[in-house]
Amino acid sequence: MYDISIRRPKRHPQTAPPTGNAQSVFYLKHSDKPKTIIKFMKQFLTVGLAKKDKKFESFLEATKKELTAFFNSSVPEPLIFLLESRLELDLIWGQKTEKWVVGGTKNGSIFILDPKVYTQLSSHKDKNDFWKTLKHEYCHIYFRYITKGVNPLWLHEGLASYLADQKKICDDPLDVFSYFDKPGKGLYNAGYFWVDLLIEKFGKAKFLRLIKSLEPKPNLTENIFSARFCKIYGFKFDKNALTKLIK
Ligand SMILES: [Zn+2]
Q1: For 91-105, what is the mean pLDDT?
Q2: Domain map (residue ranges) of the chain
Q3: Å from CA of 8 to ligand 1 middle
Q4: How far does residue 231's CA lie from ligand 1's centre (Å)?
Q5: Order of strands across the sheet with 47-49?
Q6: Distance 110 CA to ligand 1 centre (A)
Q7: Distance between Cα 237 and ligand 1 center (Å)
Q8: What count of other Cβ atoms lies within 10 Å of the Cβ of residue 83?
Q9: What is the pTM of this model?
């Protein structure tokens, strides 16, 4: 039996959490127990256990199986918070979120707009996008757990989009160098492009070795990433090499 808890905030808090960046709202470490996370959430939202839902359970079970096989490692099962309003999303992110933002991960938990309001409260028009988003966020849980970070950001977002079958068109693959640790307009497109290329051209084994080499110790700069990449792929992750690859 899948023992994930789907929890649902019931009403808005009387007092909003501190505004500013998300860190000021959420400060729990990944290793903190679910109980601690819920206790913390309860300061801001009324949190309750969601009704049992067969579709959710089987989707999460299948996704967990697939991702565990892909990453060849397992992660603590995330709590999934179904949010019923954009305000809840804004509260959790500590800032006003844009219409295309429908979910995210923090502290080993997934926050996502409830399927009931998913299309209504976002710019996504297809209801099935909800399931792709859920899988995308679940993939982030693995990536963050394994790499203890989110960089390179293009790899983090590209892989989640690739595994969740959120295909993207990329007009400028070399734009990837803008997204090592900063988001931007072409982040998902460039990320998808390079993840797809690396996996299809050089195989999954090398790709997984790359993911498992991303530990930020002492810190993961672009140069350190390029050197670790070179050890695995035999060429540096730089403009010259990438230009040759896409010729
Ligand atoms: Zn993402």
Answers
A1: 87
A2: 1-147, 158-247
A3: 21
A4: 27
A5: 47-49, 6-9, 80-83, 109-113, 103-106
A6: 11
A7: 22
A8: 23
A9: 0.87
Which residues, listed in sequence order, are joined to residue 103 by a DSSP beta bridge?
112
Kindly report the three-state secondary structure assignment for every residue of the chain. Answer: CCCCCEEEECCCCCCCCCCCCHHHCCCCCCCCCHHHHHHHHCCCCCEEECCCCHHHHHHHHHHHHHHHHHHCCCCCCCCEEEECCHHHHHHHHCCCCCCCCCEEEECCEEEEECCCCCCCCCCCCCCCHHHHHHHHHHHHHHHHHHHCCCCCHHHHHHHHHHHCCCCCCCCCHHHHHHHCCCCCCCHHHHHHHHHHHHHHHHCHHHHHHHHCCCCCCCCCCHHHHHHHHHHHHCCCCCHHHHHHHCC
Predicted pLDDT at 32: 61
Residue 221 CB neighbours (<10 A): 13
pLDDT higher for 119 or 53? 119
Cα(27)–Cα(37) distance, integer angstroms:
10
pLDDT for 4 equals 43
Of the pLDDT bands very low, low, confident and very high (cuts 50, 70, 90), residue 8 is low
| Pairing label, strands 80-83, 6-9 | parallel
Which amino acid is located at 231 in the chain? K
- The predicted-structure confidence for 149-201, as pLDDT tens digits, reads as follows 999 999 999 999 999 999 999 999 999 999 999 999 999 999 999 999 999 99
CA of 124 from ligand 1 middle (Å) equals 15
Cα 161 to middle of ligand 1, angstroms = 7
Q: How far is the CA of 181 from the centre of ligand 1 (A)?
A: 13
